[in-house]
Amino acid sequence: MAFDLDQLKWDDKGLVSVVFQDYRTGEVLTLAYMSREALEKTLETGKVYVFRRSRGRVMMKGETSGNVQNVKEVLVDCDADALVMKIEQVGGAACHEGYPSCFYRRLENGDLVVFEERVFDPKEVYGK
Amino acid sequence: MAFDLDQLKWDDKGLVSVVFQDYRTGEVLTLAYMSREALEKTLETGKVYVFRRSRGRVMMKGETSGNVQNVKEVLVDCDADALVMKIEQVGGAACHEGYPSCFYRRLENGDLVVFEERVFDPKEVYGK
Q1: How confident is the model at residue A54, as a pLDDT?
Q2: pLDDT reported for residue B128
Q3: For position B27, which CATH number holds?
Q4: Are A19 and B18 in contact (CB under 8 A)?
């Protein structure tokens, strides 16, 4: 079936959820939101663009830090309101906190424990 | 750091997003939403409970189909508004459409292509 963006169920803010996953390791890196403009740019360029809720605009992922993401595969869910993008992470850090994944903490016996190593220092990359 | 549910950023509907991932293969199975009640029940029982937006209530995942999910690991993201749960999928199907994953379609040269095999027929399991 030919795909077009009207088949997706955009939410009341005009966004769909996207799970970003390392195409080699399968690690889940980030959950983010794409506007129609962000998804169009992503599919056209093969680089991830996201709608940053905190900034209210579309940005290329890694625009500031250099940690861009190249899209390898796009999956669509049953409800057509969520995507999985399997990506190649340039620079090794998907998270603005400098970690490989945004999911760098896990629950261990009631504690929240950081289990990943930082790839960069966010203060150096983004300023204070 | 000791974890409690007040550290999570619940959205304006009182939900957090949860990415469910097969703990063995790393396949992303579902993106769903948990209320505080659903997350509490999940952490207490080790079985996944989700808030179903379509029904407006908390249900054990697999309550009708038998395809329950046992929680193996819980990750928390940088913004504390999204979780990854690595789970063991009983019955082999996470999707109410009868597929192993809700992400059973992918984009291939502008087409949306089903690439997974159905594990069960939803008409038989849920009725028409």
Answers
A1: 76
A2: 56
A3: 3.10.20.810
A4: no
> What residues does A20 pair with on adjacent strands?
A30, A85
What three-state secondary structure class fits A41? helix
User: Which pLDDT score, from 0 to 100, does residue B49 have?
Assistant: 95
- Residue A47 inside a domain? The answer is yes
In whole angstroms, what is the distance from residue A106 CA to residue A64 CA? 27
Q: Specify which residues A89 forms β-bridges with.
A: A69
B77 touches chain A (CB under 8 A): yes
Nearest chain B alpha carbon to A71: B107
Give this complex's ipTM: 0.92
Contacting residues of B for A21, CB less than 8 Å apart:
26, 28
Which one is predicted more confidently, A124 or B1?
Answer: A124
Considering the domain boundaries, does residue B7 fall inside one?
Answer: no
Total domains in chain B come to 1
Instruction: Tell me whether residue B72 is in a domain.
Output: yes
* Residue A5 CB neighbours (<10 A): 11
Q: Is residue B2 part of a domain?
A: no
Compare all CA atoms of chain A with the CA of B30 and give the residue at the minimum distance: A77
Interface contact B17-A30, CB threshold 8 A: no
Judged by CB atoms closer than 8 Å, whether chains meet at B19 and A28 is answered as yes
Q: How many CB atoms lie within 10 A of CB B55?
A: 8
B69-96 mean pLDDT:
96
Q: B127 — contact with chain A (CB < 8 Å)?
A: no
Q: How many CB atoms lie within 10 A of CB A110?
A: 9
User: Amino acid letter at A114?
Assistant: V
- Enclosing domain of residue A75: 12-126
pTM of the model: 0.92
